């Protein structure tokens, strides 16, 4: 067990996937999707979109768009949402979930 543990932490870096785990980003993603849909004339309530967060765009779109809308507007909506999220949402996320802010520091001090 100890030799395995040492091999795991002999790495030069540890990557943390913080989106949705350490950073509460569900509402941010839902807001970006809602604004992106609205930009293309599609209006859906926030809670409906929020309930779909965690899916990729390929799974989220069919919930809100029919095949014709998806074909005509899907790629443009997804591209717009990506730029919108980076520009307006990513720089200032809600913050780190309670109790998780110290995780990277704790890992660094222990290993």
Radius of gyration in whole Å, from Cα? Answer: 19 Å
Provide the low-confidence segments as ranges: none
What share of the residues lie within helices?
55-70%
How many helices? The count is: 6
Structural class: mainly alpha
Please give a structural write-up:
By secondary structure, the chain is an all-alpha fold. The chain has one domain. The protein is 59% helix and 0% strand. The chain is built from 6 helices and no strands. Helix 2 crosses helix 5. The longest helix has 23 residues. The two termini are 16 Å apart. The model has no long low-confidence stretch (mean pLDDT 79).
Describe what is shown at a glance.
The chain is an all-alpha fold and 111 residues long.
Write the layout of secondary structure elements.
Elements: H1 2-8, H2 26-39, H3 46-50, H4 57-64, H5 67-89, H6 103-110
Helix pairs in contact: 2-5
List key phrases describing it:
111 residues, mainly alpha, 6 helices
